[in-house]
Design a protein that fits this description.
Length: 832
């Protein structure tokens, strides 16, 4: 046996009998009601580019690939589109993966640009395709090897890991350049390529290992940083460390073999580049002689040299304090948000009409492609009400936005300027969060808390006082709050005594109010293979006024119909539309943005100062969304401590490698010069000291140490073989100047695309490029003059200034004591 199941059509619902009359007739639902398939709610409207639309939000599942998810949705919509009725189309109002794909495309282009610039530098210095080919082959070997190890560490190919590979391009050629340059140096002295390679590897194997270990180890402390900050550091740390270690292995194995096979003694330069190479070599020779002469002079004036070093350290501290600090930069993610708020309790129809003006502004804004309107909703509060609207404004692709007014900041400024002219409402544009999913808005999200548990008016009064004071701060702009404590409301008071006297069930009174004045869920029905909900509510004209309560009746115990107006009274009140609780406290969320020229950290400090000046002790504050992550990062391991720990790790590793406590000082005393260059360049470009700048500073420890290691390692070896300390320092400076400049300028030019970055994620790339280019320029142009001085002075201090002969005798005695053990035969003081 089978019976009818759930009703499925409006006609079947309309046929429901609600009363059977004595004469046999029946009153059906269709006789007293309108039955239709409709929307579940009617308090929100959607439009795309001003046309009516049903907006669908699609979210990526945790652990899935963002680009695969977006591509799958687009393919599904193309398939579904074939069954659309005539006149119905779909449009993608917002695609947050565009920034990901565009950022990866930009970084991929940057990789090729960096590679070409590195090849150019190597070719100019080595002046031949054979020696250029050897460092060039180190790049794919190192990068592909890095990709292979990504799954082991749970990394994906994303914008951060590709960003790290851009930085690695200028590093992975360093070891091969050092090897090739040393081999060429010995070939020029008359040795065969094979013998020159063996001799060069005896000299540079130590520096190659030391440089690789230092560049990898400098990021070790970052592995212990928790939270988002640690994750950002770790992406760069492991990417660069893996690539550098593979590069070192390549320089100790493949590069020497290729040197022995490919390199040949050079003759006179011929061809179209011959005159250029001749001019370049003459100029380099003059520069090399001038460098050695100035280094000799600075060694003789070592006190002045250390004063200069101290001045660089002081200047670095000065510029570091001048730089505004921030967490993550605001990027052009290809879209922006706009919020609209009308006076409290404004109707949805009125909000929709004002939204037309907002849509017209967005339509006429340069660089805007599409705009999606959600009328009756606010993303800032995630609450549906009739007097709010929210807009997702999607920009044209980055390649099409070439004019200055089509960039992110000018678009935002234009929108805010035009939106400020709307008299009926308050509207403003603001950026999305720097990391998608961490909150709903960029900028600062501040939470004001009533920690005494007082009433709504207490929080409202203090909020008004706080907002008035915060609006006067120059560090803040776009200050707004979603806390609405005085929204006009109608309160229906049920007289319980009358309800009891009339014999009416109290639950029936409230259920009738809910059903007719609002709407009530009845049950489910099946349609289109899915389950839907059935609601009952009064027609609009019967619930647009409190006076209509007299039209609604409830039945008492005697079966008599009692009007609701006899059991209730109506009061007009003011109250909150909704209340927010944060950490169990009644709270008000405040959104703000840092004014032009100020950082998010300065905006946070301004809000905290306003709180300390205006709020009583019963009030408290906290942060939420991206601001919460920024405060957690500040309360965790500070950047100065990370920098100091990285410096300590490098010092200890150098001490272990060279079995000396003095040598690491010679290597690391050039770091303040690099830091000065980074801070001064950031200050000159009016940039912030954010996470990406801090990652660049940590890199500079290893990069500046690399230059020093090349000089100090050679000078120390010469000194231990009996060359006077002064001559050893100057000889190391002379011999190692060429590889230092080659590796440094290869890295600097490899980072030029970061300096000039545009498109998605460009701000982070420009900050990182500015930091490392400024620091490396200072380390390569200024610090190299101080490295021989620091080596000479520190070695003099370590050996207590003993004469060279006594030092040589001590070395010979130590060698004789070792005999032919692990240390080998006694060193020949005259060996070169």
């Amino acid at each position: 046996m089978r019976a009818q199941g759930r009703l499925t059509t409006p006609e079947e619902f309309g046929a429901i009998v609600i009363r059977a009359n004595p004469d046999g007739s029946a009153v059906r639902l269709r006789d007293v009601a309108r039955v239709e398939l409709g929307a579940q709610v009617y308090n929100v409207r959607g439009r795309v580019n001003g046309k009516p639309a049903a907006n669908i939000a699609i979210y990526q599942l945790p652990g899935s690939n963002a680009l695969d998810c977006a591509n799958g949705v687009k393919k599904a919509m193309e398939r579904i589109k074939r069954s659309f009725p005539q006149g119905l189309e779909y449009a993608i109002g917002l695609d947050t993966t565009q920034a990901v794909s565009e950022g990866m495309r930009e970084i991929s282009n940057t990789l090729w640009q960096a590679l070409l610039l590195v090849i150019l530098v190597v070719f100019v210095f080595l002046q031949g395709w054979r020696p250029t080919l050897i460092p060039l082959l180190a790049v794919p070997v190192s990068l592909i090897g890095t990709f292979i190890l990504f799954p082991v560490f749970g990394f994906s190919v994303n914008t951060l890991s590709l960003f790290g590979l851009v930085l690695a391009i200028g590093l992975v050629v360093d070891d091969a350049i050092v090897v090739v340059e040393a081999v060429e140096h010995h070939i020029e002295e008359g040795m065969s390529p094979r013998d020159a390679t063996l001799k060069a590897m005896e000299e540079v194997s130590g520096p190659v290992v030391a440089i690789a270990v230092i560049l990898a180890a400098v990021f070790i402390p970052t592995a212990f940083i928790p939270g988002i900050t640690g994750r950002l550091y770790q992406q760069f740390a492991l990417t660069i460390a893996i690539s550098v270690i593979i590069s070192a292995f390549n320089a100790l194995s493949l590069s020497p073999a290729m040197c022995a096979m490919l390199l040949r003694p050079k003759g006179a330069s011929r061809g179209p580049l011959g005159p250029f190479f001749g001019w370049f070599n003459r100029q380099f020779g003059r520069a090399q002689k001038g460098y050695v002469d100035l280094s000799r002079h600075l060694i003789h004036k070592s006190v002045i040299s250390f004063i200069i070093l101290g001045c660089f350290a002081a200047a670095a501290l000065f510029f570091g304090r001048k730089l505004p600090t921030a967490f993550l930069p605001e990027e052009d993610q290809g879209y922006i948000y706009v919020a609209l708020q009308l006076p409290n309790a404004a109707s949805l129809q009125r909000t929709s009409e004002v939204s037309r003006k907002v849509e017209e502004i967005m339509k006429n804004t340069p660089g805007v492609k599409t705009y999606t309107s959600i009328i009756g909703f606010s993303l800032l509060s995630t609450v549906y009400n009739t007097y709010n609207a929210f807009y997702f404004v999607n920009f044209k692709p980055w390649s099409e936005r070439t004019k200055p007014e089509e960039h992110f900041d000018p678009i935002r400024a234009h929108l805010n300027r035009e939106l400020g002219k709307i008299p009926e409402a308050r509207a403003f544009a603001f950026s999305p969060p720097s990391i998608p999913g961490v909150g709903t808005a960029g900028g600062v999200t501040f939470v004001l808390e009533d920690r005494a548990g007082r009433d709504i008016s207490f929080l409202a009064d203090n909020l008004n006082k706080f907002m008035a004071a915060a609006a006067k701060r120059k560090e803040l702009t776009n200050l707004s709050t979603q806390f609405l404590p005085k929204v006009p409301q109608i309160f229906v008071k049920v007289d319980r005594d009358k309800v009891l006297k009339q014999g009416v069930p109290l639950a029936d009174v409230y259920r009738t109010l809910q059903c007719y004045m609002g709407g009530i869920f009845v049950n489910y029905f099946n349609r289109f293979g899915r389950q839907w909900q059935v609601y009952v509510e009064a027609e609009g004209e019967y619930r647009d006024s409190p006076d209509k309560l007299g039209s609604y009746f409830v039945r008492n115990r005697d079966g008599v119909m009692v009007p609701l107006s006899a059991l209730t009274t109506v009061e007009n009140r003011l109250g909150p539309e909704f209340t927010m609780r944060y950490n169990l406290y009644r709270s008000a969320k405040i959104n703000a943005a840092a004014a032009p020229g100020y950082s998010s950290n300065q905006a946070n400090a301004a809000l905290e100062e306003v709180f300390a000046q205006t709020m009583p002790r019963e009030m408290g504050f906290d942060y939420i969304d991206m601001s919460f992550q920024e405060k957690k990062a500040q309360e965790g391991v500070p950047p100065a401590a990370i920098f100091a720990l990285s410096l300590l790790f490098v010092f200890l590793i150098l001490a272990a490698l060279y079995e000396s406590w003095s040598l690491p000082f010679s290597v690391l005393l050039g770091v303040p010069v690099a830091v000065f260059g980074a801070y001064a360049t950031l200050y000159a470009r009016r940039m912030e000291n954010n996470v990406f700048a801090q990652i660049g500073l940590i890199m500079l420890i290893g990069l500046s140490a690399k230059n020093a290691i090349l000089i100090v390692e050679f000078a120390r070896t010469r000194y231990e073989h009996g060359v006077p300390l002064l001559e050893a320092a100057l000889e190391g400076a002379k011999i190692r100047l060429r590889p230092i400049l080659m590796t440094s300028f290869a890295f600097i030019l490899g980072c030029v695309p970061l300096w000039l970055a545009s498109g998605s994620g460009a701000v982070a790339r420009r900050v990182m490029g500015t930091t490392v280019i400024g620091g490396m320029l200072a380390a390569s142009v200024l610090a190299i003059f101080l490295i021989p001085v620091t080596f000479y002075v520190i070695e003099m201090w370590a050996t207590k200034g003993e004469p060279h002969n006594a030092h040589a005798a001590r070395l010979a005695a130590a060698a004789n004591a070792k005999g032919n053990g692990p240390g080998g035969p006694p060193a020949d003081p005259g060996a070169h």
